[in-house]
Amino acid sequence: MATVRIIPHTTAPRTRTGAPRARRGFALMDAVIAGVLLAIGMVTVLSVGGQAMTMQRRGEIDVRAASALDDILSGVLTEGPEAYEKLYPLSGAFDAGSPYQDFQFIIEIERGGAGVPARVLARVIHEGGREYSVETSIAEKRGEETDPVRTPVEPIDREARHAQKQQQRDGTAAPAEQ
């Protein structure tokens, strides 16, 4: 019968060159640390993506609010402050099919008197609670002034003008006299 002798290892195993061999549990530790770092990176990326979506949505609401305020003030300017009060409601919700259907509006008009423009405050409130407002001065329309006719005295031939400018750019025709 052969005798087997067991010798306990008190030092780390060595390679052929005599350098100590790396421990085997170290690769597992590397994988755990890499997984934790990867998870932290993913959480950060997803968080930034969520914030970007929130900011994009808020920007869209801001643009629509500015457009709604512009529409309101354009109406007051077109009709005149005094006539606008008689023709349109000064508060309420926008129509259901409009791009501003998730906004409420409030218009305050303080007449200025003879020669003094009216103070107009337009506010829109989003259903999320954000409020936007613009205050401006708008002069009253005087008397029965009709809106000016803005049609040109002579018709404009846009195609001929375009062709003429194209020829000037290409150098095929002399510039037209004005």
Report on the architecture of this protein.
The model has no long low-confidence stretch (mean pLDDT 83). Strand 2 (103-110) and strand 3 form a beta hairpin. Helix content is 42%, strand content 16%. It has helices at 25-79, 81-87, 158-170, and strands at residues 91-93, 103-110, 118-126, 131-138. Strands 1-2-3-4 form a four-stranded antiparallel sheet, with helices on one face. It contains three helices and four strands. It starts with 24 loop residues before the first helix and ends in an 8-residue tail after the last helix. It has a domain at 47-141. It is α+β, with helices and mostly antiparallel strands.
Task: Give a brief outline of the structure.
With 178 residues, the protein is α+β, with helices and mostly antiparallel strands. It has helices spanning 25-79, 81-87, 158-170; strands at residues 91-93, 103-110, 118-126, 131-138. The mean pLDDT is 83.
